[in-house]
Amino acid sequence: MIKPVDILMVGVGGQGTVLASKVLAQAACGAGYDIKVSEIHGMAQRGGSVVTQVRLGEKVYSPLIAEGGADIVLAFEKLEGLRFLRFLRPGGTMIVNDQEIPPVPVLAGAAEYPAGIVDYIRRAVPSAVVVDALGLALECGSARAANVVLLGVLARRLPIAREIWEEALAGRVPARFLEANRAAFRAGYGYNG
Amino acid sequence: MKELLSGNEAIARGAYESGVTVAAAYPGTPSTEILENLARYPGVYAEWAPNEKVAVEVGIGASLAGARTLVAMKHVGVNVAADPLLTFAYTGVNGGFVLVSADDPGIHSSQNEQDNRRYAYFAKIPLLEPGDSQEAKEMVGLALDISEKFDIPVMLRTTTRVSHSQGLVEIGEPKPRSLKPYARDARKYLMVPAYARLRRVALEERLARLKEYSENSPLNFIEWRGRAVGVITSGVSYQYVREVLPGASVLKLGMTNPLPENLIKKFAGEVEKLIVVEELEPYLEEQVRAMGFKVSGKDIVPYTGELDPGVLTRVFTEAGILEPSAAPAAALPEGPAAPGRPPVMCPGCPHRGLFYALRGLKLTVTGDIGCYTLGGLPPLEALDCCICMGASIGAAHGAGKADPALAGRTVAVIGDSTFLHSGLTGLLNVVYNRGSSTVIILDNGTTAMTGHQDHPGTGRTLMGEPAPAVDLEALVRALGVRRVRVVDPLNLAETRAAVEEEVAAGEPSVIISRRPCVLLKKETRPAAVVLAEKCRGCKVCLRLGCPAISMKDGRAAVDPIACTGCELCVQVCREGALLKGVEACD
């Protein structure tokens, strides 16, 4: 019996959540899961919040996860982590990238970027995994691979074999970027935050 | 073999496998990817039509000529296409014809959330509603079979969560494709009153036969579980019901016009509590009630927005259909409020310059549908209204006719793709009826909002072939506009002066605000630079609403990665604190 897993991936347009969800989907297919992935396009692509819902299981019906029902929330940006924390089920896994991308109302001075987001998330979810994905990605030679670092952090928390992940990554990332992305994935996979 | 496909990819695959050879659409979220994918299959001719009405008319011609045909659009596109569609139901088809209506419950990227199942009912055409990618693929083939068997166009209605969700789909082999022979038949295809009256009667006969089909179609089926609660549902709502009420019996309707009345009677008669679960309108509920059954629906399930398992769990618990959860989720500790992250114009977007200029002139601005609709949001707040594709021009004209004081203070803004979609007739009307509106065509050389689709002004077709690009200046002159000029919206002084002059002109005028979409033509101009000693922290530059500009320690800061060097901020800074990247190097 395959144990179902519901994953909410949240971030900001341009952070590479779509690629991450594609690799995850391919890996999950490779591991024999039924899967549904739901994304919102359109207005949200223009620097807005981006939400991808990924559901794995023996047989998946709904493409959407209920609030308070996600086993894992993977936040590519911490304000988005704060916004979607309510989707995490009690006892679920919270992974948050310690990166700050101020929304335009904050840039324009109409709102403030909240202080202490990470502290709050840790208080709400003591087991939260906080990652400096950008820093780790830079160490691997590509700031653009922060999404794959986070994917690596997620990967170790899912019952999918590492080889399947590596294969899915190779299948989705253009060859010339593959080396940096492999390193980024491994950095995330081995991260013990 | 199974592949992970979005609903839209699956519809394209289904069309290819079922022998579709002609397809037409106008891009619109959440429908756009259907044609983009279908155009890549061998043996398929696919085109972007200038609007949805034209797309349906192209589809009608292709069907008459014997081709299996698919036409796709977002829900509001069916409003535009309704004219040919309603009469096409009378004539019927030759080659099978499916119209995909991609509805947007929750208004993710639209101006309303109309429920187009009502259109199928109104147009008297069969309606299929897939609930996931696999069904989406299969139902395209079934829709084409039904279309040919019953001589009628068929609507396939998806929603955002079907079109943009991915699921595993069994891939099949394409059928051999062939044209059905065309035979001239004026009584069937020439809708003048005498023949239309005959086809009107024939339409009712076809509907009666379709009702029989619906009763026995595998598209409509009952899953018997407990008899205490029976749910009638369709589309993606079925998926939510399966998760939230795993013990309930379900009548899943894949074909929702005409409804299978006997099947519904059978189901309703064997369950204690009958509930209809559907998004948006009580489309099924009203018909089930009209059949004489006591049924719950919108008294429990919300009218507006999307459903999801969370919403259904809440409303069923409130209604006493679900037991309250034994261990309610622990409340989160009090935390900081999360400021919103609204969509914004990209750094370097040419629309920004135009809207900044309009805002400065304090004009009344009638808006339209596209990326530039974002110009209505803070901090630019430069739009007064936005209704539908093409509406900006008629609205500016009407406002000016109602109040002469507004006539000299109002401009209409409309994108290039939107102007070609439905702005031409509005502009023609301004000229004909002696209006004096100034129409600004925001020509960024693409259909940007939906992801850069080509249109008659771009010089390329959906199939990737070069095409004649419409000459906008000549076109608007041909409509009778004498005052036509082109400005660069990234030149604020020029743009402002042009708008001031044209608004004051007292006759119809067109300003073409021309600059390619910044995402389409990546220029590598150096980022603007802040001279910290000159910046007084006045925040004028923030009024541009540019994601690359922020305040740090009371001074403006430019994000050198996000900045495209458009130099708008250099132009608005009164202190000379923002410099062109090139100047800073010198």
TrEMBL record, chain A:
Molecular function (GO) terms listed?
oxidoreductase activity, acting on the aldehyde or oxo group of donors
Keyword terms: Oxidoreductase, Pyruvate
Q: Does the keyword Oxidoreductase apply?
A: yes
Q: Which residues form a coiled coil?
A: none
All residue ranges annotated as the Pyruvate/ketoisovalerate oxidoreductase catalytic domain in the record: 13-189
Does the keyword tRNA-binding feature in the UniProt annotation?
no
Where exactly are the transmembrane stretches of this chain?
none
**UniProt xrefs under Pfam families:** POR
InterPro entries on file: IorB_Oxidoreductase, Pyrv/ketoisovalerate_OxRed_cat, Pyrv_flavodox_OxRed_cen
Origin: domain of life? Bacteria
Name of the protein: Pyruvate:ferredoxin oxidoreductase and related 2-oxoacid:ferredoxin oxidoreductases, gamma subunit
Which source organism does the UniProt entry give?
Answer: Pelotomaculum thermopropionicum (strain DSM 13744 / JCM 10971 / SI)
Q: What broad taxonomic lineage does this protein's source fall under? A: Bacteria, Bacillati, Bacillota, Clostridia, Eubacteriales
Q: Which gene encodes it?
A: PorG
From TrEMBL, chain B:
Might you give the EC number(s) for this enzyme? 1.2.7.8
Name the cofactor(s) required for activity, per the record.
Answer: [4Fe-4S] cluster
Transmembrane annotation, as ranges: none
Q: Does the keyword Phosphoprotein apply?
A: no
Residues binding [4Fe-4S] cluster 2: C546, C563, C566, C569
Q: How is the cofactor bound?
A: Binds 2 [4Fe-4S] clusters. In this family the first cluster has a non-standard and varying [4Fe-4S] binding motif CX(2)CX(2)CX(4-5)CP.
| Entry's Gene Ontology molecular function annotations | 4 iron, 4 sulfur cluster binding; indolepyruvate ferredoxin oxidoreductase activity; metal ion binding; thiamine pyrophosphate binding
Reactions that this protein is recorded to catalyse: indole-3-pyruvate + 2 oxidized [2Fe-2S]-[ferredoxin] + CoA = (indol-3-yl)acetyl-CoA + 2 reduced [2Fe-2S]-[ferredoxin] + CO2 + H(+)
The positions annotated for binding [4Fe-4S] cluster 1 are C535, C538, C541, C573
* Sorted UniProt keywords: 4Fe-4S, Electron transport, Iron, Iron-sulfur, Metal-binding, Oxidoreductase, Pyruvate, Transport
The record's section on CDD domains has: TPP_IOR_alpha (cd02008), TPP_PYR_PFOR_IOR-alpha_like (cd07034)
Checking Pfam families in the record gives: POR_N, TPP_enzyme_C
**PROSITE patterns from the xrefs?**
4FE4S_FER_2 (PS51379)
According to the entry, every stretch annotated as the 4Fe-4S ferredoxin-type domain falls at 526-553, 554-583
Q: Which InterPro entries match?
A: 4Fe4S_Fe-S-bd (IPR017896), HACL1-like (IPR045025), IorA (IPR017721), Pyrv_Fd/Flavodoxin_OxRdtase_N (IPR002880), THDP-binding (IPR029061), TPP_enzyme_TPP-bd (IPR011766), Transketo_C/PFOR_II (IPR009014)
Question: PANTHER family, alphabetically?
Answer: 2-HYDROXYACYL-COA LYASE, INDOLEPYRUVATE FERREDOXIN OXIDOREDUCTASE ALPHA SUBUNIT
- Quaternary organization: Heterodimer of the IorA and IorB subunits.
Q: What does this protein do?
A: Catalyzes the ferredoxin-dependent oxidative decarboxylation of arylpyruvates.
| UniProt protein name | Indolepyruvate oxidoreductase subunit IorA
Species assigned in the record: Pelotomaculum thermopropionicum (strain DSM 13744 / JCM 10971 / SI)
